[in-house]
Amino acid sequence: MQMRRRFKHTTSLKDRLASFAQGVRDRAEKLRPGIERDQLLKKARLADTAAHLDEWANSAGLRPPR
């Protein structure tokens, strides 16, 4: 049986998603309008949405389910 490789992240998920989204936006900015650029911008929007969901899920105001 193979052992899973474990990795301890040094930055938060929100920070990693934000830097990924910014990197993708920078790449998309260099492209001409088209399918590839649209796909990169969609990935950036999805990363932003995931960061907001992570922030909401970890907020102090969120109550646990009963």
Question: Averaged pLDDT, please?
Answer: 91
Radius of gyration: 16 Å
- The helix tally amounts to 2
* Spatial gap, N to C terminus: 38 Å
* Quantity of strands, as a count: 0
Shape: extended
Report on this model:
- This protein is mainly alpha-helical.
- The protein has a domain at 13-57.
- The chain has two helices and no strands.
- It is extended, with a radius of gyration of 16 Å.
- The termini are far apart.
- The mean pLDDT is 91.
Question: What secondary-structure arrangement, pairings included, does this model have?
Answer:
Layout: H1 13-29, H2 35-57
Helix pairs in contact: 1-2
Which key terms come to mind for this protein?
61% helix; single chain; mainly alpha; 66 residues
Brief summary of the model shown:
The protein has 66 residues and is an all-alpha fold.
